[in-house]
Amino acid sequence: MHELPLVFFTVFGQSAAGLFFVAYLSNKLNLINNNQLNAANFLAMVVMFLALAIGGLHVGQPIRFFNMLLGIGRSPMSNEAFFSGIFMALAIGTVVFSFFEKFTKLKQICNLAGVVAGLIFVWSIPQVYYIDTVANWNTHYTVLQMWMTCFIGGGALATLIGAHKLGALFFIIGAMVILATKAEYISLLNAKAIDQTWFWGIQLVILGLSLFVMAAVVLQDNVPRTTLVACTVIIFVAELSGRIAFYNLWEITM
């Protein structure tokens, strides 16, 4: 599948931005301490790095990434590339400054700026797929799905670093929105949607089962870490499966 690098790029990138946001908010609400925030920022940086590294395979030669920046402001793809780079740079800055106590202010500035840049990056991704000639992509459900990945992936990752309540809550919101809207979304698509039944089935079953785990996290806050890790892994399988289905819908309409 030619778009497979983009599957990982979008899912990992949106999840990294979601983690950056959920962890920052959790820290401000005194739900996690600074050490946990630093761990979350490091994890988000690693996930975003993986997103860019895998996504770069779609571009081919690395130099082409910089060529994409020539259209900033007028090209959605250039905007996406630009904001992904800004988010990554701020994530790195946040992590680096966290190692030096004298740079606490700079770390805080980078952290807040990184949250904003991450959310703008998430916003920029679906803009690439508003294409008049690809009817299956040119729908508001494209935006909805990608924002919910931010909630689902970011929330799941947040539970791993200790932001249990807020992370699980973000996941639950995202998963319930996807479960509630999937049928209507599919009804808007053409015959190619039938070929994606298995991918969407995997996504919906995993998200549905994971809701029970995350509900337990919210209610009890004593779910074993191994369970959270396993749940997070299969949640990413679900989101990757749903994103594969999305890219498989590509078809030029007349």
Automatic annotation (TrEMBL):
EC number annotated for this UniProt entry: 1.8.5.3
Pfam family, one: DmsC
Transmembrane segments: 6-25, 37-61, 81-100, 112-131, 143-161, 168-186, 198-219, 226-250
Keywords, sorted A to Z: Membrane, Oxidoreductase, Transmembrane, Transmembrane helix
UniProt keyword Transmembrane present: yes
GO molecular function, one term: oxidoreductase activity
Enzyme class: oxidoreductase
PANTHER family for the chain: ANAEROBIC DIMETHYL SULFOXIDE REDUCTASE CHAIN YNFH, ANAEROBIC DIMETHYL SULFOXIDE REDUCTASE, SUBUNIT C
Record-given protein name: Dimethyl sulfoxide reductase anchor subunit
Organism: Arsenophonus apicola
